[in-house]
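In this supplementary section we document a worked example of the pipeline. Step one takes a protein sequence of length 101 as its only input; no multiple sequence alignment statistics are reported here. Step two produces a three-dimensional model, which step three serialises into structure tokens for compact storage. The input and output of this example are shown verbatim.
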Amino acid sequence: MTIAGWLIILESLTGLIVGGINYIIWEDDLSLLGIVIAFIDFWLYTMILKQEYSAWMMAVIFNRIVIFLYATGYNFPGVFPSLVAFLYLIMPNVKVHFVRK
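The serialised model returned by step three reads:
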């Protein structure tokens, strides 16, 4: 599950950097929301490493939101890692590691 964790960290860092730059330049609230979601992703990273089912579910839901948010907020560098993380998390051989035991 290290790959899933690294993908979550990558999308968090990308969202944080690009969202921060967008907020500094244009001061829009959509960029600020992206920064908040990036910090939530940092918290999800620790839960993903523990293989908690709730973390998997929240990561899938947040990635759907983040992909839409980044695409509408012109954060196109953030869309790609979020899409890759989302597709990786919904793969059946990855999802089985988060099933409740």
